[in-house]
């Protein structure tokens, strides 16, 4: 099943805002080998913006429990895994 995503103009503006913040943080890091605390917050915000826009989520086990230290996955993969467990399919 192929799922198509559309990036709205509002999404593009948000991505542009964080792109510029990322660019600033990288410049600071290159010049000083240091980051501002606000740069770290901006990186977290960018991470969540990307996850929301592209429908990523934390990996979950078969019971639906979040596995916070595992890689993120496509949300539909998590849904498929938990539905299979509910139906008794391995």
Tags for this entry?
two-stranded antiparallel sheet, flat, 3 helices, mainly alpha, 90 residues, 7% strand
Could you please describe the fold and organization of this structure?
This protein has helices at 9-32, 37-54, 75-87, and strands at residues 56-58, 72-74. α1 (9-32) packs antiparallel against α2. The longest helix has 24 residues, at 9-32. The chain is mainly α. The mean pLDDT is 87.
Shape: flat
Q: Identify the strand order in the major beta sheet.
A: 1-2
Q: Ends: how far apart?
A: 20 Å
Round the mean pLDDT to the nearest integer and report it: 87
Mind sketching the topology for me?
Elements: H1 9-32, H2 37-54, E1 56-58, E2 72-74, H3 75-87
Antiparallel strand pairs: 1-2
Helix pairs in contact: 1-2
Compose a concise summary of this entry.
With 90 residues, the protein is mainly alpha-helical. The chain has 3 helices and 2 strands, in the order ααββα. Helix 1 (9-32) packs antiparallel against helix 2 (37-54).
